[in-house]
Amino acid sequence: MTLPETTARLERGLRGELSALAVLDHTTRVLLDAVPADIWCGVVLDPSTLLDTGGQHESGFPESSMRRLFEIEHVEQDDVDNLRALTRRPGKVSLLSRSTHGRLDDSKYYREILQPLGLTDELRILLRDGRRTWGLLVLCRDAHTRPFSSEDLAVAEALSVPACAALRRSLLLSGVDSGPLPDAPGWVVLDGDLGVRSMSPTAHHWIEQLQERHAPGRAEAAPYLLRALAVQARGEPAGAGAHVRAPTSAGRWISLRAWPVDQGGEPTTVVSVGPTDPADLTALVLDVYGLSPRARQIAQHLLLGRSTSEIALHLGVSAYTVQDHLKQIFDKVGVRSRRELVAELFFRHYLPQLADPPLSTDGRLLSPESRTDR
């Protein structure tokens, strides 16, 4: 099958309203037909923290490798193809053997993760839109499979474009509340081995909504997201903690915050799990729509009910500049007017997250600095 035919097959399967897992399933199925691998996984990322917020792990790395993998990836962050390093480079694909110029043993990740599993190379494919990285596909090969070729990398890079667009669309669906969920946060306590020591009923409810799938028969363990977050929190300065946002299968966004504590000399991590704060959600949703930083600022001012002249004065730009950005915002979000834009952002994404919407007496959203309940 030619590359245009493969791309067309991928695009056909990504039409419609798909969940993030469905996007990853179809993408990896098409990709693996063209670029086979011995171990692979696909993950959804929080673009702000680059933490795994869900994904398909059935054919991925074994449980025994995960803790060290999290430490290398999220705490030490010094390996050549570390995810954070990749997002600072141009391009969407990276092959470990090329990044190390053929000296794989120079890579700690290779020595401690890949080599013990008999794997000889790893291809990482970023699902990114230029500014933000929304997902990651990882393909590994062992010594019995031919090395990755330049053609493999070209196919992977081409397929990453429609895959990223579909993944972003799927995250927009996470603004639609499809059922009643508790609005209070819950708590999870992880022990020194990243096992669950205790979990509140509310936290259990939220954790069950994570879009994370593993191989059948996998031993009961904390989700990868919780463990990666705990490892990162333990590597942060005292009191800093770690934070990530994740879409749920029930159509909500949740936020998880982790803090390491010392209980009788044993390292313990406390994780709060609850609905994403609306102010935090807005920035994420506008990112998902692919708006520029300036366009996001203008959209947020619109949600506060400000006029074109008020926005221009606040941002120190001309009214014509604001109007130009508004046209771009309307095109990106798929609306034709301010009213439709507010309806799309507020009723589709904001309102489902709010038990008590922060509105002023005239019905406008209150800005964070004017709210007295915080």
Automatic annotation (TrEMBL):
<dbReference type="InterPro" id="IPR000792">
    <property type="entry name" value="Tscrpt_reg_LuxR_C"/>
</dbReference>
<dbReference type="Pfam" id="PF01590">
    <property type="entry name" value="GAF"/>
</dbReference>
<dbReference type="InterPro" id="IPR036388">
    <property type="entry name" value="WH-like_DNA-bd_sf"/>
</dbReference>
<dbReference type="GO" id="GO:0006355">
    <property type="term" value="P:regulation of DNA-templated transcription"/>
</dbReference>
<dbReference type="GO" id="GO:0003677">
    <property type="term" value="F:DNA binding"/>
</dbReference>
<dbReference type="Pfam" id="PF00196">
    <property type="entry name" value="GerE"/>
</dbReference>
<dbReference type="InterPro" id="IPR029016">
    <property type="entry name" value="GAF-like_dom_sf"/>
</dbReference>
<keyword id="KW-0804">Transcription</keyword>
<dbReference type="InterPro" id="IPR016032">
    <property type="entry name" value="Sig_transdc_resp-reg_C-effctor"/>
</dbReference>
<dbReference type="InterPro" id="IPR003018">
    <property type="entry name" value="GAF"/>
</dbReference>
<keyword id="KW-0805">Transcription regulation</keyword>
<keyword id="KW-0238">DNA-binding</keyword>
<feature type="domain" description="HTH luxR-type">
    <location>
        <begin position="288"/>
        <end position="345"/>
    </location>
</feature>
<protein>
    <submittedName>
        <fullName>LuxR C-terminal-related transcriptional regulator</fullName>
    </submittedName>
</protein>
